[in-house]
Amino acid sequence: MQKFLISDGSDLLSDAAAWRGGYISRLEKKYGCELRFSHIDEAAARALSRREGDYCTVTGSAAARALAYAMRRLARGVKVLVAGLGNSSFVSDAFGADAVNALRRLDRDGAFLTVLPEVRAVTGVDSADVIASLAGAVKPDLVIAADALATTDWRKIGACYQLTTAGIRPGSGTSAGGKCIDGDYIGTRVLAVGVPLICAVDTTEGQRSVIPYDAESVVGECANTIAAAIFAAYS
């Protein structure tokens, strides 16, 4: 599980309102969806406590075409390695694995490289190390890392997709955060993609994670959408 990359854009926009430089945001409408593209440079990243890079939030139904468009805008690649992050034993955290498996069904010609690194608690190996090792061996020119995200707003569950070139840290939504999967660590360009599928709720006993009652259906639909977008963008 990963914390929100940039939420739905509103919190980032709010933070950036007091920042006068190094932050650019624009809204586009494509294929029936809204796409919020943002760029944060090094200075803005320090001021806003964000990672430097390009970001996009896609909101709307039937989002595969819009996501493919956004992916091509953020990162080009010919030899693409797709990593499905998360613990596949838990429905809400199986998004990454489900997306990779859906892509494998679409990819009949074997155009994509894929890997399911699982989580350190299961394998004893950090996901970033698995991906870095594989990337070093097969030399992709782009790594796509897919993971479930956490939100504090239940209305965002399965309702938007987030992409960034800034990397992703598996488990940062928990106390067991791993190494950051980014271009510096992996050794090639990284595009992180995610969907909010877990809602963090504050209770009198502390913060609790809540998932929708139809989590399996929501996760499956989002995974199929991401897989279709990756296939359309890079095949």
Describe the structure.
The protein has 235 residues and is of the alpha/beta class. It has a single domain (2-234), classed as HybD-like (Rossmann fold). The chain has 8 helices and 10 strands. Strands 1, 2, 3, 4, 5, 6, 7, 8, 9 and 10 form a 10-stranded mixed β-sheet that branches. Strand 9 and strand 10 (206-210) form a beta hairpin. Helix 3 crosses helix 8 and helix 4 crosses helix 8 (215-234). The longest helix is centred in the C-terminal third of the chain and has 20 residues, at 215-234. The two termini are 28 Å apart.
Key words describing this protein structure:
235 residues; alpha/beta; Rossmann fold; ten-stranded mixed β-sheet; 10 strands; globular; disordered N terminus
Total count of strands: 10
Instruction: Determine the CATH topology.
Output: Rossmann fold
Question: Could you spell the SSE succession in H and E letters?
Answer: EHEEHEHEHEHHEEHEEH
If you compute it from the alpha carbons, what radius of gyration comes out, rounded to the nearest whole angstrom?
17 Å
Global geometry: globular
The biggest beta sheet reads: 10 strands, mixed
Strand portion: 25-35%
| Uncertain segments | 1-20
The number of helices is 8
Query: What count of structural domains?
Result: 1
What structural class do the secondary elements suggest? alpha/beta
Mean pLDDT: 86
Distance between the termini: 28 Å
Q: Give the CATH class.
A: Alpha Beta
